[in-house]
Amino acid sequence: MIKNIVLAIIASASSFAVFAHNKHVHGEARLDIAIDNTTVSLDLELPLDAVVGFERPPKNDKEKAALILVEKTLKDGVVLWILTPAANCRFESAQVSLPKFEGEHADIDANYLFRCSNPSALKSIETSLFKSLKRLYRIEVQRIGPSGQGAARVSPNKPVLSW
After folding, report:
1. Partners of 33 in the beta sheet?
2. Where in the chain are the domains?
3. pLDDT at 11 over 60
4. What is the CA radius of gyration of the chain?
5. Distance CA 163, CA 161 (A)
């Protein structure tokens, strides 16, 4: 139990450290994955430019509609993330935070929660984000879990993270 709490704290701390020290790069998202017992948490940070093509408040109805559509798309965790089938994971929730447009750059933050009945079988996560977000060209990933930690990059040509 204590080990699991420590893993969660490390995952949360590394999430903040990674995002705080890496500069905002258009077309590049950041993903932190924390695996703790049966829980898999995915924390995603996307530059708004990679999602809708602008990083300012929407200027017209078309841009407002684009933000609404992307929020809907990002909430569909079942479509966006495919976890190893043998792990028997079920999607539990998604939280998507649209930007407040308070600074020079704007990001969308999203969190996805899955529960797995056979977590030891979890060996990969595939994303379909690249199919929906054509301006996104890579995702820098950090993962922590019972099998250790690691960093990787996924892209449209390699949308599967394996460990």
Report:
1. 42, 143
2. 2-162
3. no
4. 16
5. 7
